[in-house]
């Protein structure tokens, strides 16, 4: 080959390589410039493709709060097992059983729990107080004569002055029953229903007492659940009378077993029940809701979404299964009295129940063991459910309050202005607008809008999406979402003047 030919070939090869590299660079640039979408089926994605700057993606999950991570790791299944076995050792905890026997009956369980919560409070530096909230329950359908009932209430006071009156309640019921709720003599071990929930609440109090939170957390165990939600009703009613700002309530009831009567073993799922239409909705509110929507966006439903997001972030082995019902079919729990008084409340329950171990006299029949015995509890599973509870409670009590008075204007427009009241926390960083398709279960998109009290979602109609607002503090702690309601209509000014009388 001649030298000139070799030189031409080398030049041609260099040119081809340069062209190839330039094409590759252009492809990478174009691909990286394309927006990535959370849900390709979403109508929001179509709009995002048309204008990616206007419809930003949901940011990455916030960094973990190290205090919450530490709390989660400190929940101990061995402590939970010890509590359950101790409660079972009292023979029965029927609400109508003996209150003065130091070894058997609900009175013995009450006094032991009170002492245990006091021990937990000793770690709090005076921030946790424990009380016996005693009241007389009048004669009722499952209460044959007036009976004194006692809630055990441990209150961990918030440390931020602007948030200390904001309260989060977590409960379990410490009473138990056999087949008959009024049989005060039979053995009613109640290892799952509801020593499991009681043990989870006590373990949370033990762990969380030594930590500080902006808002207040109440750890509560109540009697009278099997007689008609009596202890919880009394607490909720007293809270309502005193205008206590209960922002959320969790009840843990039957969280003890990962093996259901259907044979399914699922140690990685907990059900969270939340109502859609509020129990205390007025006729006027119902009329507005039917017009503008919101059946799936009550404060309780927002609470369930918050628990799912936070719980699965900090307890990665667990799935929070949101159930869109107030409770199991035709049944009730201690969150119900709170719902009826306008508080956001949810119920935690195992995914597959075993009815041979609920409300049964202890016996062996046809070779089958009946009764609510500790041998059927999964203490590691209960600990994981407690961890989900604790993570959500700590996140709620560390974050700002959910925004108040969030409203849409009543006019017609393809843009969506949203307004809300300013939060009062001194460490507030700002707010986020969240949205989702109307058929989606959880919030799929969000946009930080700064420390403002109004923001307009350009080109996004409130007809086509569900929107919400949440508050964020300077450490990245996020509140639950508030769903907007329709702003009151302004009086019309185009009506003809009325003649003077």
Q: What global shape is seen?
A: globular
Question: Looking at this structure, what is the CATH superfamily of the largest domain?
Answer: Zn peptidases
Mean pLDDT: 89
Distance between the termini: 114 Å
Residue windows where pLDDT falls under 50 for at least 5 positions: 23-45, 49-54, 496-501
Report the sheet-strand fraction: 15-25%
Describe this structure in words.
By secondary structure, this protein is of the alpha/beta class. It has 2 domains: 75-398, Zn peptidases (Aminopeptidase, 3-Layer(aba) Sandwich), CATH 3.40.630; 407-486, Immunoglobulins (Immunoglobulin-like). The protein contains 11 helices and 17 strands. The strands form 5 sheets. An 8-stranded mixed sheet has the order 1-2-4-3-5-8-6-7, sandwiched between helices. It is globular, with a radius of gyration of 28 Å. 45% of the residues are buried.
